[in-house]
């Protein structure tokens, strides 16, 4: 039974390659469009959080060094 399945899958793959001129890709070869494994929305949220963290820390540093004073 497995010989028939192997033959069938081999013929289907060869026919697919011949008809469309493409080959099957492995899962590791597929480009998902993700950077660092994050989707676009996740990267946006991460960048907003980092921006707010840097802003708050820099204002706190300016207040601590008396570079700026609250009115």
Descriptive keywords:
single chain; 71 residues; mainly alpha; 2 helices; rod-shaped
SSE string, helices as H and strands as E: HH
- How many individual domains? 1
The strand count comes to 0
Q: Give the uncertain stretches in residue-range form.
A: none
- Structural class, by secondary structure, is mainly alpha
Shape: rod-shaped
Largest sheet: none
The amount of beta strand, in percent, is: under 5%
Give the termini distance in whole angstroms: 84 Å
Radius of gyration based on Cα positions:
28 Å
What is the averaged pLDDT score?
80
Number of helices: 2
Percentage of residues in helical conformation = 55-70%
Overview of the molecule:
With 71 residues, the protein is an all-alpha fold. It has one domain (2-64). Helix content is 62%, strand content 0%. It has 2 helices and no strands. The model has no long low-confidence stretch (mean pLDDT 80).
Short description:
With 71 residues, this protein is mainly alpha-helical. It has one domain.
Topology:
Layout: H1 2-20, H2 40-64
């Amino acid at each position: 039974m497995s010989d028939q399945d192997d033959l069938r899958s081999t013929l289907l793959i060869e026919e697919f390659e011949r008809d469309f001129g493409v080959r099957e890709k492995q899962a590791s070869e597929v480009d998902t469009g993700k950077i660092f494994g994050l989707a676009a929305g996740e990267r946006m949220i991460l960048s907003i959080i980092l921006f707010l963290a840097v802003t708050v820390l820099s204002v706190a540093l300016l207040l601590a060094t008396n570079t700026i004073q609250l009115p």
